[in-house]
Design goal:
There is one protein chain. This protein is of the alpha+beta class. Helices cover 44% and strands 26% of the residues.
């Protein structure tokens, strides 16, 4: 990968978005680029995971298997996102699996190099603190969502969380700029895929939301007002 391309893609990572060219060059010297095919595992639960991962292109799903063998989606990350930061900070393993949902390109930074970056680049440290606070708030919202005993409320709460994280406001509502399958939504809300399909079809019929040609979900303003 050419240096100019690498710097441009690093600039798109939300952790590095406000860095100067010189600061990005320092980080670029410490990364390795890895290409993934669809379905390829990035992290296994037993991995020591002393690596920080930033998604330059594509999508990665973080999952965990519960006691019954059911796969639960903990998070879905796409271009511009990062993961693995907790393990490179505290050195503990990550009890989850990360695998590519589609062909992806990721940047890897070893733990010692990442520690050097956050200790020497104040902007990166401040960005990391801000983004980790945002993820903590998202986690609180997920806990609230999972406490709903009503499937419609769970799915709506999930869509609102996704809109807050990946949404683009275009006047008549918010478009979630992430492709979410019915199965993805089911696994992240703890309901069945059939239930997700039924509820989304009701909302589409009522024109509360639209499924766009690129599979993004557009939430209408009235839908956003109440839970």
């Amino acid at each position: 990968m050419k240096r100019e391309t690498k710097l441009e893609e690093l600039k798109n990572i939300n952790l590095f978005s406000n860095l100067t060219t010189e600061e990005l060059i320092e980080i670029a010297q410490k990364i390795q680029i890895k290409s993934l095919i669809k379905g390829q595992v990035v992290i296994y639960p037993e991995d020591t995971n002393e690596t920080f991962y930033a998604i330059l292109k594509g999508k990665v799903k973080i999952t965990k298997t519960d006691f019954s063998g059911k796969e639960i989606i903990l998070a879905i990350h796409q271009s511009g996102d990062f993961f693995g930061e907790l393990s490179v900070i505290d050195g503990r393993t990550c009890p989850a699996t990360a695998h590519a949902v589609e062909s992806s390109t990721i940047a890897l930074i070893a733990r010692d190099d990442f520690q050097h970056i956050i200790h020497n680049q104040t902007k990166v440290l401040n960005n990391l603190l801000f983004l980790m606070c945002s993820r903590l708030r998202d986690a609180w919202n997920v806990v609230e969502m999972l406490n709903f005993d009503n499937a419609s409320k769970r799915i709506k709460m999930f869509l609102l969380i996704s809109a807050n994280k990946y949404g683009i406001n275009n006047g008549d509502g918010i478009t979630i700029k992430m492709k979410l399958t019915h199965q993805d939504i089911a696994e992240m809300t703890g309901v069945t895929r059939e239930t997700v399909t039924r509820i989304l079809n009701i909302w589409k019929k009522n024109k509360d939301l639209l499924i766009l040609d690129n599979k993004y979900i557009h939430l209408k303003n009235d839908f956003l007002k109440t839970l």
